[in-house]
Amino acid sequence: MMRSCGISSIFAVAFVVGLCSSAEALPPGGPEAAAMQWILLVDAGEYAKSWDRAGVVFKSSVTAGDWQKRIAPSREPLGAIMTRTVRDETLSQTFPGLPGGKYALIHFNSVFEHNAAALETVTLDMEDSHWTVIGYYIQQRYKQ
């Protein structure tokens, strides 16, 4: 969904505000690795696989078909990913609207073929001792 103000919203489970830091140890691989593995599926246009590998909260918020309908028209016009770097990572034991648990919020500074700069936000939840994606959002900052 494109808006004239240059912001592309793809999917957000909850507002980003309210995350608190946590100093707890993380399982091997960590949320950054899980986010990158998942987002590579989106980059490749494998939207059905990205839904399959998403967490319970994600799947309960959007059907596989609706996810594909929402992501394709928002993501494909951006073109290929050129660069993606982690801007920051926040760990929390709480997340707005969800029960206590282990959550991670990762912001990526991203450059796409047809977009000079974007901020991607990936939200993850610890499910069965591994990180799963429960939210994805892209904010386009500059258009070429």
Mind telling me the CATH class? Answer: Alpha Beta
Q: What is the approximate shape?
A: globular
- The low-confidence parts are 1-27
CATH architecture: Roll
Q: Radius of gyration from the CA trace?
A: 14 Å
State the helicity in percent bands: 25-40%
Write down the secondary-structure element order: HHHHEEEE
User: What strand line-up does the widest sheet have?
Assistant: 1-2-3-4
Class per helix and strand makeup: alpha+beta
Mean pLDDT: 83
Q: Main β-sheet: number of strands, strand sense, barrel status?
A: 4 strands, antiparallel
DSSP strand content: 25-35%
Instruction: Name the CATH superfamily assignment.
Output: NTF2-like, domain 1
**Total count of helical runs of at least 4 residues:** 4
Q: What is the number of beta strands?
A: 4
Count of discrete structural domains = 1
Q: What's the N-to-C terminus distance?
A: 18 Å
Stated plainly, the CATH topology is called Nuclear Transport Factor 2, Chain: A
Structure notes:
The chain is α+β, with helices and mostly antiparallel strands and 144 residues long. The chain has a single domain, classed as NTF2-like, domain 1 (Nuclear Transport Factor 2, Chain: A). A four-stranded antiparallel sheet has the order 1-2-3-4. The N terminus is likely disordered. It is globular. Strand 2 and strand 3 form a beta hairpin. The longest helix has 14 residues. It has four helices and four strands, in the order ααααββββ.
